[in-house]
Amino acid sequence: MVQSATDEATWISCKNLLTAARDRKLNTYVQISVAHPTEQSLTRYANTEVVEATRDPLFLTGVTFPSEYPIYEETKIKLTVYDVKDKSQETIEGDGHRGQSEYGSGVCHHD
């Protein structure tokens, strides 16, 4: 899902996100965080746009790590999906957390 060490972007998508109510559509975005080998904590790197009213969002905002950004083989990249209750205020529904994935920087996609 995330590509590093080049100026190329990779897009992110989700399928069959779970909701509390079956008929409810989600308004979701993905937060991308990075943990460098020398740091113990995650740093927010970027967010996608909010995709409305679907459980299968395709985010058109690409994630790019420019060549000058320090990405190492040991760098961890975490993608967290959130449900937004009110897009205009970007209020997160409940805990809002709908899923996450964590990758080493050598991984470019996840099936």
Which key phrases capture this entry?
single chain, 111 residues, mainly beta, Immunoglobulin-like, 4-stranded antiparallel beta sheet, two-stranded antiparallel sheet, 6 strands, disordered C terminus, C2_domain_sf
Describe this structure as you would to a colleague:
The protein is an all-beta fold and 111 residues long. The protein has a single domain (9-104), classed as Sandwich (Immunoglobulin-like). It has strands spanning 9-13, 28-35, 43-47, 58-64, 76-86, 91-104. Strands 3-2-5-6 form a four-stranded antiparallel β-sheet, with no helix packed on it. A two-stranded antiparallel sheet has the order 1-4. Strand 2 and strand 3 form a beta hairpin. The protein is elongated and about 45 Å long. Mean pLDDT is 74; it is low at 1-6 and 105-111.
Strands of the widest sheet, in order across it, are 3-2-5-6
Named CATH architecture: Sandwich
Q: What pattern of helices and strands is seen along the backbone?
A: EEEEEE
Largest sheet: 4 strands, antiparallel
Question: β content, as a range?
Answer: over 45%
Would you tell me the overall average pLDDT? 74
Taking the alpha carbons of the first and last residues, their distance comes to: 9 Å
What is the number of independent domains?
A: 1
User: What's the CATH topology name?
Assistant: Immunoglobulin-like
- Which structural class is indicated by helix and strand composition? mainly beta
The CATH homologous superfamily is termed C2 domain
Just give the CATH class.
Mainly Beta
Total helices: the number is 0
What would the principal axes of the Cα set say about the shape? elongated
Region (Disordered): 88-111
Pathway: Signal transduction; phosphatidylinositol signaling pathway
GO cellular component, one term: cytoplasm
Keywords: Hydrolase, Lipid metabolism
